[in-house]
Design brief:
This protein is of the alpha/beta class and 421 residues long. Helix content is 44%, strand content 15%. It is built from 15 helices and 13 strands. The two termini are 44 Å apart.
């Protein structure tokens, strides 16, 4: 028999392995019963299942590509009808499993399952339909999946709530709590009699996804408050939306509290500099996450990263203007690039200097010059070859999925422009 998901959790916690090789977003595996009457399905987005006398309760239901696999996994453990599904939030990797259970219910003459979510979730689904094209592009870029297609049909909840909603299914109590964090529609679920906490994506075995550069607003301060509230529950089993479970009250409290500390530090230091009149550029290059927190096995920046969180705090309080007056009503990018290239002696000179900077290890500055060169000479294959090389080096130097995705997309753009396939 292979390693159990709780054994894997122990090894991650102890540092025997790390999330760079066991990425929390891409873990898939077989269902395991992690406590009596409680099962955990590790997938692109995890699913937690509870057996009750009235049928199953699921917290999250899986993504569209894995919906039938999740259903088969649950059915290998328990054959009872699905009674209730709770959406932890409306991201598409969490909300596409219910129709498979509904098909089964209709075939067997069972009552249809009900779906419960926060009252802001239907608006998210409406927005996803409105912005389907944009979401398709940015998720292709973020995950390096050019064939990804964004869905436009959603299973809306049957019942919504505002702040808190308690349910009893087959003698098992569940408390549903709203929190603004990664999303405005987040629900964390507490089963007090079982001491099991389902936190959704408020904890994911990675530096919190509180700064995603291509997505809508995140809420780090309220996120931290929710983490501290959960930390005080005394949970003995934590089932996250991504990554592996954590067993043991002391470990759970530590993980949630330190995640809150990281968010609070980034929020408070950014806001302090904003209040002092600093520009966004000043803040980005001054505020740093505490090194001891980023060294924790569950807070490494393998998906999002602290620098992006700083930008999201600015956006929350300060809007889109970054404090640089040249950016308020700027010239077109290609016009600015052409002027800089003319001053430098041509786009080739910019590209050559970008290559020199990249060789010297200054990839940030190299990126600026490579981008200017390509904007000034968009049809120059050699310029694009340099841009592709610079951004490929940036991919290799980064740890977060988001940075790797964006830089990799740019590298592939220029690789094609340079004559590659």
């Amino acid at each position: 028999m292979g390693e159990s998901v709780l054994e894997l959790s122990d090894r991650l916690w102890d540092g025997d392995i790390d999330t760079s090789t066991h990425h929390p977003l891409f873990s898939t595996g077989t269902l395991e019963e992690v406590a009596p009457g409680v099962a955990f399905v590790p997938s692109f987005a995890n699913v937690s299942a509870f057996a009750t006398d009235d049928g199953l309760v699921l917290v999250d239901t899986g993504s569209l590509p894995f919906a039938r696999l999740v259903h088969q996994s649950v059915r290998s453990w328990d054959r009872a009808p699905l009674h209730t599904a709770v959406y932890s939030h409306g991201h598409i990797d969490h909300v596409f499993g219910v129709p498979v259970f509904e098909e089964e219910a209709a075939t067997n003459g069972w009552a249809a399952p009900r779906v419960i979510a926060h009252e802001a979730l239907p608006n998210r689904f409406d927005r996803y339909v409105l912005t389907a094209g944009y979401n398709e592009v940015v998720n292709q870029r973020q995950f390096g999946l050019p064939d990804l297609r964004w869905p436009v049909d959603y299973r809306y909840p049957d019942q919504t709530y505002a702040d808190r909603h308690d349910i009893d299914v087959g003698g098992v109590r569940f408390e549903l709590h709203h929190a603004r964090g990664e999303t405005d529609d987040h629900t964390w679920t507490w089963a007090p009699d079982l001491k099991v906490l389902c936190c959704g994506d408020l904890f994911i075995w990675a530096s919190p996804n509180a700064g995603n550069p291509q997505k809508v607003q995140r809420y780090p301060r309220e996120w931290a408050l929710a983490l501290r509230e959960m930390a005080d529950l005394g949970a003995e089993l934590l089932l996250p939306g991504h990554g592996v479970p954590i067993a043991g009250a002391a470990r759970i409290r530590t993980a949630l509290t330190e995640t809150a500390e990281l968010l609070e530090h980034l929020h408070d230091e950014t806001l302090s500099m904003m209040n002092a009149g600093a520009r966004l550029d000043d803040i980005i290059h001054a505020v740093r996450a505490p090194a001891h927190l980023l060294a924790r096995p569950y807070l490494r920046p393998v998906y999002d990263e602290p620098e992006f969180v700083i930008r999201n705090v600015w956006r929350l309080y300060g809007g889109w203007y970054d404090g640089n007056p040249a950016h308020l009503k700027p010239a077109p990018d290609n016009a600015f690039a052409a002027e800089v290239a003319a001053l430098a002696g041509g786009a080739q000179r910019l590209a050559q200097r970008a290559a020199q900077l990249a060789d010297a290890g200054d990839l940030r500055l190299a990126g600026h010059l490579a981008e200017l060169a390509a904007q000034a000479a968009p049809d120059d294959a050699s310029v694009h070859a340099t841009r592709a090389d610079v951004y490929q080096r940036r991919v290799q130097a980064e740890s977060s999925t988001m940075a790797k995705g964006i830089f990799g997309w740019a590298a592939r753009e220029s690789h094609r422009q340079a004559g590659g396939s």
